[in-house]
Amino acid sequence: MDEFSFIDAIKPTAYKQSALIKGIGDDAAVFRSTSDIVTTVDTFVENIHFSLETMDPFHIGYRVLAANISDLAAMGAEPAFYLVSMCIPKKWKQHALEEIYRGMDELASKYRMDLIGGDTVSSDCLMISITAIGYVPKERARYRSDAKPDDIVFTTGTLGDSRAGLEILLQGKEYKDKDYFIKRHRLPEPRVGFVLDLREIDRMALNDISDGISNEANEIAEASGVELTIIEEKIPVSDSFHQFSEAQQHEWKLSGGEDFELLGTVSEVHWPRMQEVASLAGTSVHQIGYVRKAEKPCVLIQSDGETKQLTKSGYTHLK
Questions:
Q1: Using CA atoms in the order 213, 215, 221, 223, what is the torsion angle rounded to 10 degrees?
Q2: Which three-class secondary structure state does DSSP give residue 126?
Q3: CB 73 within 8 A of CB 192
Q4: Which positions ≥6 away from 276 have C-beta within 8 Å?
Q5: Domain 3-136 class, CATH top level
Q6: Contact 185, 278 (CB under 8 A)
Q7: Residues of the chain with pLDDT under 70
Q8: Fold of the CATH domain 144-309
Protein backbone atom coordinates (compact mmCIF):
# COMPACT_ATOMS: atom_id res chain seq x y z
CA MET A 1 0.00 0.00 0.00
CA ASP A 2 1.09 3.56 -0.71
CA GLU A 3 -0.64 6.88 -0.14
CA PHE A 4 -1.91 7.29 -3.69
CA SER A 5 -3.29 3.79 -4.14
CA PHE A 6 -5.04 4.12 -0.80
CA ILE A 7 -6.63 7.44 -1.82
CA ASP A 8 -7.83 5.83 -5.05
CA ALA A 9 -9.32 2.97 -3.04
CA ILE A 10 -11.48 5.23 -0.88
CA LYS A 11 -12.21 8.01 -3.38
CA PRO A 12 -15.98 8.52 -3.91
CA THR A 13 -17.28 7.90 -7.43
CA ALA A 14 -20.18 10.38 -7.26
CA TYR A 15 -21.30 13.44 -5.29
CA LYS A 16 -24.33 13.45 -3.00
CA GLN A 17 -24.47 17.20 -2.29
CA SER A 18 -25.56 19.46 -5.16
CA ALA A 19 -23.49 22.31 -3.63
CA LEU A 20 -20.26 20.36 -4.20
CA ILE A 21 -18.42 21.66 -7.25
CA LYS A 22 -15.15 19.76 -6.87
CA GLY A 23 -14.32 17.05 -4.36
CA ILE A 24 -11.25 14.82 -4.06
CA GLY A 25 -8.76 15.20 -6.89
CA ASP A 26 -7.36 18.73 -6.61
CA ASP A 27 -5.42 20.60 -3.97
CA ALA A 28 -8.67 21.58 -2.24
CA ALA A 29 -12.41 20.99 -2.49
CA VAL A 30 -14.89 23.61 -3.72
CA PHE A 31 -18.50 24.01 -2.66
CA ARG A 32 -21.02 26.85 -2.80
CA SER A 33 -23.60 27.90 -0.21
CA THR A 34 -26.07 30.65 0.66
CA SER A 35 -26.46 29.38 4.25
CA ASP A 36 -24.25 29.85 7.30
CA ILE A 37 -21.51 27.24 7.32
CA VAL A 38 -20.73 25.26 10.48
CA THR A 39 -17.45 23.38 10.87
CA THR A 40 -16.12 21.06 13.54
CA VAL A 41 -13.00 18.94 13.95
CA ASP A 42 -12.11 16.04 16.26
CA THR A 43 -8.98 13.92 16.57
CA PHE A 44 -9.10 10.30 17.71
CA VAL A 45 -6.11 8.27 18.89
CA GLU A 46 -5.85 4.49 19.07
CA ASN A 47 -6.02 3.09 22.61
CA ILE A 48 -7.30 6.43 23.93
CA HIS A 49 -10.50 6.97 21.96
CA PHE A 50 -10.87 3.52 20.43
CA SER A 51 -9.33 0.06 20.60
CA LEU A 52 -9.44 -3.09 18.51
CA GLU A 53 -10.09 -4.87 21.80
CA THR A 54 -13.66 -3.58 21.77
CA MET A 55 -14.28 -2.52 18.15
CA ASP A 56 -13.82 -3.72 14.61
CA PRO A 57 -12.37 -1.20 12.12
CA PHE A 58 -15.87 -0.66 10.69
CA HIS A 59 -17.15 0.43 14.11
CA ILE A 60 -14.19 2.78 14.55
CA GLY A 61 -15.02 4.61 11.33
CA TYR A 62 -18.72 4.78 12.07
CA ARG A 63 -18.19 6.06 15.59
CA VAL A 64 -15.59 8.74 14.90
CA LEU A 65 -17.77 10.29 12.21
CA ALA A 66 -20.81 10.03 14.51
CA ALA A 67 -18.98 12.20 17.04
CA ASN A 68 -18.53 14.96 14.48
CA ILE A 69 -22.08 14.71 13.16
CA SER A 70 -23.33 15.01 16.74
CA ASP A 71 -21.36 18.26 17.09
CA LEU A 72 -23.06 19.58 13.96
CA ALA A 73 -26.45 18.55 15.33
CA ALA A 74 -25.76 20.43 18.56
CA MET A 75 -25.21 23.56 16.47
CA GLY A 76 -28.49 23.04 14.62
CA ALA A 77 -26.66 22.22 11.38
CA GLU A 78 -27.46 19.79 8.60
CA PRO A 79 -24.40 17.62 7.78
CA ALA A 80 -22.98 18.01 4.27
CA PHE A 81 -19.25 17.23 3.94
CA TYR A 82 -16.33 15.68 5.80
CA LEU A 83 -12.56 15.45 5.46
CA VAL A 84 -10.43 12.69 6.98
CA SER A 85 -6.73 12.80 7.86
CA MET A 86 -4.96 9.70 9.14
CA CYS A 87 -1.61 9.03 10.76
CA ILE A 88 -1.06 5.35 9.93
CA PRO A 89 1.37 2.85 11.51
CA LYS A 90 2.78 -0.04 9.46
CA LYS A 91 0.80 -2.66 11.43
CA TRP A 92 -2.48 -1.38 9.92
CA LYS A 93 -3.16 -3.06 6.57
CA GLN A 94 -5.08 -1.55 3.68
CA HIS A 95 -8.13 -3.80 4.13
CA ALA A 96 -8.55 -2.69 7.75
CA LEU A 97 -8.19 0.97 6.79
CA GLU A 98 -10.76 0.54 4.04
CA GLU A 99 -13.10 -0.94 6.65
CA ILE A 100 -12.71 2.25 8.71
CA TYR A 101 -13.76 4.28 5.67
CA ARG A 102 -16.62 1.86 4.99
CA GLY A 103 -17.91 2.53 8.51
CA MET A 104 -17.74 6.26 7.87
CA ASP A 105 -19.48 5.89 4.53
CA GLU A 106 -22.26 3.81 6.08
CA LEU A 107 -23.16 6.68 8.40
CA ALA A 108 -22.38 9.48 5.95
CA SER A 109 -24.80 7.98 3.41
CA LYS A 110 -27.66 8.40 5.88
CA TYR A 111 -27.14 12.16 5.74
CA ARG A 112 -25.97 12.41 2.11
CA MET A 113 -22.54 13.58 3.27
CA ASP A 114 -19.69 13.73 0.78
CA LEU A 115 -16.08 12.87 1.60
CA ILE A 116 -14.21 15.81 0.04
CA GLY A 117 -10.59 15.42 1.13
CA GLY A 118 -8.02 14.75 3.82
CA ASP A 119 -4.47 13.52 4.19
CA THR A 120 -2.48 10.38 5.07
CA VAL A 121 0.94 10.19 6.73
CA SER A 122 3.05 7.52 8.43
CA SER A 123 3.04 7.34 12.23
CA ASP A 124 3.78 5.12 15.22
CA CYS A 125 0.09 4.86 16.17
CA LEU A 126 -3.21 5.26 14.35
CA MET A 127 -4.70 8.73 14.61
CA ILE A 128 -7.82 9.90 12.80
CA SER A 129 -8.77 13.55 12.45
CA ILE A 130 -12.15 14.41 10.98
CA THR A 131 -13.38 17.81 9.89
CA ALA A 132 -17.15 17.92 9.31
CA ILE A 133 -19.04 20.72 7.59
CA GLY A 134 -22.74 21.50 7.70
CA TYR A 135 -25.30 24.16 6.85
CA VAL A 136 -27.70 26.14 8.98
CA PRO A 137 -30.05 28.92 7.84
CA LYS A 138 -28.56 32.37 8.35
CA GLU A 139 -28.38 33.39 12.00
CA ARG A 140 -30.16 30.21 13.14
CA ALA A 141 -27.23 28.31 14.65
CA ARG A 142 -27.70 27.00 18.20
CA TYR A 143 -25.30 28.15 20.91
CA ARG A 144 -24.49 27.12 24.48
CA SER A 145 -24.91 30.77 25.45
CA ASP A 146 -28.66 30.83 24.71
CA ALA A 147 -29.97 29.44 28.01
CA LYS A 148 -32.25 31.85 29.92
CA PRO A 149 -33.74 31.84 33.44
CA ASP A 150 -36.95 29.77 33.71
CA ASP A 151 -35.94 27.54 30.78
CA ILE A 152 -36.49 23.80 31.00
CA VAL A 153 -33.37 21.62 30.99
CA PHE A 154 -33.85 18.56 28.78
CA THR A 155 -31.99 15.63 27.32
CA THR A 156 -32.71 13.26 24.47
CA GLY A 157 -32.56 9.48 24.59
CA THR A 158 -31.09 7.57 27.53
CA LEU A 159 -27.75 8.20 29.20
CA GLY A 160 -24.96 5.90 30.32
CA ASP A 161 -25.65 3.31 27.62
CA SER A 162 -22.35 3.73 25.78
CA ARG A 163 -20.29 3.41 28.96
CA ALA A 164 -22.31 0.35 29.92
CA GLY A 165 -21.61 -1.15 26.49
CA LEU A 166 -17.88 -0.56 26.95
CA GLU A 167 -18.00 -2.24 30.36
CA ILE A 168 -19.73 -5.28 28.88
CA LEU A 169 -17.12 -5.55 26.12
CA LEU A 170 -14.24 -5.23 28.57
CA GLN A 171 -15.64 -7.65 31.15
CA GLY A 172 -16.78 -10.31 28.70
CA LYS A 173 -19.62 -11.36 30.99
CA GLU A 174 -23.27 -11.97 30.22
CA TYR A 175 -25.64 -9.06 30.87
CA LYS A 176 -29.28 -8.41 30.13
CA ASP A 177 -29.74 -6.57 26.81
CA LYS A 178 -26.05 -7.03 26.11
CA ASP A 179 -26.40 -6.47 22.35
CA TYR A 180 -28.34 -3.24 22.87
CA PHE A 181 -25.66 -1.68 25.07
CA ILE A 182 -22.84 -2.80 22.76
CA LYS A 183 -24.63 -1.29 19.77
CA ARG A 184 -25.09 1.98 21.64
CA HIS A 185 -21.34 2.05 22.22
CA ARG A 186 -20.21 1.01 18.75
CA LEU A 187 -22.91 2.50 16.52
CA PRO A 188 -24.35 5.65 18.12
CA GLU A 189 -27.03 7.62 16.25
CA PRO A 190 -26.66 11.42 16.28
CA ARG A 191 -29.94 13.33 16.77
CA VAL A 192 -29.84 15.20 13.46
CA GLY A 193 -33.46 14.78 12.40
CA PHE A 194 -34.76 15.92 15.76
CA VAL A 195 -32.69 19.11 15.63
CA LEU A 196 -33.58 20.00 12.05
CA ASP A 197 -37.29 19.67 12.83
CA LEU A 198 -36.88 22.23 15.64
CA ARG A 199 -35.74 25.09 13.42
CA GLU A 200 -39.04 26.92 13.94
CA ILE A 201 -38.12 27.43 17.62
CA ASP A 202 -36.28 30.75 17.78
CA ARG A 203 -34.10 30.05 20.84
CA MET A 204 -32.61 27.07 22.62
CA ALA A 205 -29.21 26.14 24.00
CA LEU A 206 -27.73 22.83 22.88
CA ASN A 207 -24.68 20.71 23.67
CA ASP A 208 -23.94 17.18 22.51
CA ILE A 209 -23.25 14.65 25.24
CA SER A 210 -19.78 13.45 24.36
CA ASP A 211 -18.11 13.99 27.75
CA GLY A 212 -21.07 13.37 30.09
CA ILE A 213 -23.73 15.82 31.27
CA SER A 214 -21.64 17.01 34.22
CA ASN A 215 -19.29 18.60 31.68
CA GLU A 216 -21.89 19.60 29.11
CA ALA A 217 -24.23 21.22 31.67
CA ASN A 218 -21.38 23.28 33.12
CA GLU A 219 -20.43 24.46 29.64
CA ILE A 220 -23.97 25.74 29.07
CA ALA A 221 -24.11 27.38 32.52
CA GLU A 222 -20.77 29.13 32.00
CA ALA A 223 -21.55 30.28 28.46
CA SER A 224 -25.01 31.57 29.42
CA GLY A 225 -24.15 32.96 32.86
CA VAL A 226 -26.93 31.00 34.58
CA GLU A 227 -27.53 28.31 37.19
CA LEU A 228 -28.72 24.92 35.98
CA THR A 229 -30.39 22.52 38.40
CA ILE A 230 -30.55 18.86 37.40
CA ILE A 231 -32.72 16.31 39.20
CA GLU A 232 -30.82 13.02 39.13
CA GLU A 233 -33.92 10.85 39.41
CA LYS A 234 -35.23 12.40 36.17
CA ILE A 235 -32.14 11.57 34.10
CA PRO A 236 -33.42 8.98 31.59
CA VAL A 237 -31.82 5.54 31.53
CA SER A 238 -32.59 2.26 29.78
CA ASP A 239 -34.85 -0.28 31.53
CA SER A 240 -31.99 -2.74 32.11
CA PHE A 241 -29.49 -0.08 33.18
CA HIS A 242 -30.39 -0.86 36.79
CA GLN A 243 -28.55 -4.21 36.62
CA PHE A 244 -25.32 -2.29 37.18
CA SER A 245 -24.18 -1.15 40.62
CA GLU A 246 -25.53 2.12 42.05
CA ALA A 247 -22.06 3.63 41.90
CA GLN A 248 -21.70 2.68 38.23
CA GLN A 249 -25.14 4.02 37.38
CA HIS A 250 -24.43 7.33 39.09
CA GLU A 251 -21.03 7.77 37.43
CA TRP A 252 -22.09 6.64 33.94
CA LYS A 253 -25.22 8.82 33.86
CA LEU A 254 -23.29 11.94 34.79
CA SER A 255 -19.84 11.46 33.27
CA GLY A 256 -19.82 8.27 31.18
CA GLY A 257 -20.02 10.26 27.97
CA GLU A 258 -20.06 9.22 24.31
CA ASP A 259 -23.80 8.65 24.19
CA PHE A 260 -23.94 11.49 21.63
CA GLU A 261 -27.37 12.49 22.85
CA LEU A 262 -28.25 16.16 23.28
CA LEU A 263 -28.49 18.25 26.44
CA GLY A 264 -30.18 21.60 26.18
CA THR A 265 -32.53 24.24 27.49
CA VAL A 266 -35.74 25.59 25.98
CA SER A 267 -38.47 27.95 27.15
CA GLU A 268 -41.57 26.52 28.80
CA VAL A 269 -43.62 27.98 25.95
CA HIS A 270 -41.82 25.82 23.38
CA TRP A 271 -41.55 22.65 25.48
CA PRO A 272 -44.84 21.11 24.22
CA ARG A 273 -43.74 21.63 20.61
CA MET A 274 -40.38 20.01 21.36
CA GLN A 275 -42.13 16.96 22.81
CA GLU A 276 -44.29 16.75 19.69
CA VAL A 277 -41.30 16.98 17.35
CA ALA A 278 -39.41 14.36 19.34
CA SER A 279 -42.32 11.96 19.06
CA LEU A 280 -42.55 12.45 15.29
CA ALA A 281 -38.78 11.99 14.95
CA GLY A 282 -38.82 8.79 17.02
CA THR A 283 -36.59 10.40 19.64
CA SER A 284 -37.42 10.49 23.32
CA VAL A 285 -36.95 13.80 25.14
CA HIS A 286 -37.04 14.28 28.91
CA GLN A 287 -37.26 17.27 31.25
CA ILE A 288 -34.48 16.82 33.80
CA GLY A 289 -34.23 20.24 35.44
CA TYR A 290 -34.57 24.00 35.18
CA VAL A 291 -32.59 27.22 34.75
CA ARG A 292 -32.35 30.09 37.25
CA LYS A 293 -30.55 33.42 37.50
CA ALA A 294 -27.12 33.25 39.10
CA GLU A 295 -24.47 35.62 40.39
CA LYS A 296 -21.94 32.93 39.57
CA PRO A 297 -22.68 30.32 36.86
CA CYS A 298 -22.90 26.79 38.22
CA VAL A 299 -24.73 23.48 38.00
CA LEU A 300 -26.59 21.99 40.95
CA ILE A 301 -27.79 18.42 41.23
CA GLN A 302 -30.68 17.24 43.38
CA SER A 303 -30.55 13.63 44.53
CA ASP A 304 -32.39 11.89 47.36
CA GLY A 305 -33.58 15.20 48.76
CA GLU A 306 -30.10 16.76 48.82
CA THR A 307 -28.74 19.51 46.57
CA LYS A 308 -25.05 19.98 45.85
CA GLN A 309 -22.87 21.45 43.16
CA LEU A 310 -22.17 19.29 40.13
CA THR A 311 -18.64 19.95 38.91
CA LYS A 312 -17.06 18.82 35.68
CA SER A 313 -15.96 15.18 35.73
CA GLY A 314 -14.84 12.39 33.44
CA TYR A 315 -11.80 12.09 31.22
CA THR A 316 -10.02 15.34 30.38
CA HIS A 317 -7.12 15.54 27.92
CA LEU A 318 -3.90 17.27 29.09
CA LYS A 319 -5.14 17.31 32.69
A1: -130
A2: coil
A3: yes
A4: none
A5: alpha beta
A6: no
A7: 1-7, 9-10, 314-319
A8: Phosphoribosyl-aminoimidazole Synthetase; Chain A, domain 2 (3.90.650)
Q: At what angle do helices 94-110 and 57-74 cross, to 10 degrees?
A: 30
Q: What is the pLDDT of residue 6?
A: 66
- Its pTM surpasses 0.85: yes
CB atoms within 10 A of CB 293: 10
DSSP letters spanning 228-294: EEEEGGGS---GGGGGS-HHHHHHHHHH------EEEEE-TTTHHHHHHHHHHHT--EEEEEEEEE-
Q: Where are the domains of the chain?
A: 3-136, 144-309
The pLDDT tens digits for 59-75 are: 999 999 999 999 999 99
The neighbour count for residue 171, using CB atoms within 10 Å, is: 9
Burial of 200 (0-12, 13-18, 19+ CB in 10 A): exposed
Apex 156 CA angle, 153 and 161, nearest 5: 120
